Structure formats: C-alpha cells, structure tokens
Amino acid sequence: MERAGISDGDELIVNRALEPRDGSVVIAVLDGELTVKRLRLTATGVVLQAENPKYADIRVPALSELTIWGVATRCLHHV
C-alpha cells in the first residue's frame, strides 16, 4: 500500500463501525484470505485496488465471498 502511505511494518487503526465507501482503504476477507486494499465500486463490480505497483488489482468475481472487516482510519509509522 505504498501509494496510500502505508509501509511494511506500519500499524493500522481500523473502525469496524464505518460504512465502507468507494475509495476507502479497507481490511477485506476474500474467499478466506485477508488483505488490505483500496475499495473501488465500479459499474462492472467490486475491485480491490492495490496501492503498490508490485501487486495487481483484484476484480472480485460474482461468486466469491467478500467481507469488508473494517475501514482503516489511521496509519502508525514506526521510526
């Protein structure tokens, strides 16, 4: 999540009460796999957008099980 300002080893504060919206950085569980991605709601479906050029975006297939566990609200960087 480099382009979102989240580096390896950072800690995220996540609010599970917030409604995830297009553009939110979310903790998502897709088919049992946990990931941190930017949520994109498009006309063709849901995309979990990578904010790191090393990783591809994930287009969520229609029959997949997707749970948005929470919305990241703060990032704590270690020094």
Commentary on this structure:
With 79 residues, this protein is an all-beta fold. It has one domain (2-76): Umud Fragment, subunit A (Ribbon). Helices cover 0% and strands 49% of the residues. It has strands at residues 11-15, 25-30, 33-42, 45-49, 58-59, 66-76. It has a six-stranded antiparallel sheet, with no helix packed on it. The protein is globular, with a radius of gyration of 12 Å. The two termini are 18 Å apart.
Order of helical and strand elements: EEEEEE
Radius of gyration: 12 Å
The name of the CATH topology is Umud Fragment, subunit A
Please give the count of helices.
0
Write the topology of this structure.
Layout: E1 11-15, E2 25-30, E3 33-42, E4 45-49, E5 58-59, E6 66-76
Antiparallel strand pairs: 1-6, 2-3, 2-6, 3-4, 4-5
Summarize the structure.
The chain is mainly β and 79 residues long.
Structure characteristics:
about 80 residues, mainly beta, Umud Fragment, subunit A, 6-stranded antiparallel beta sheet
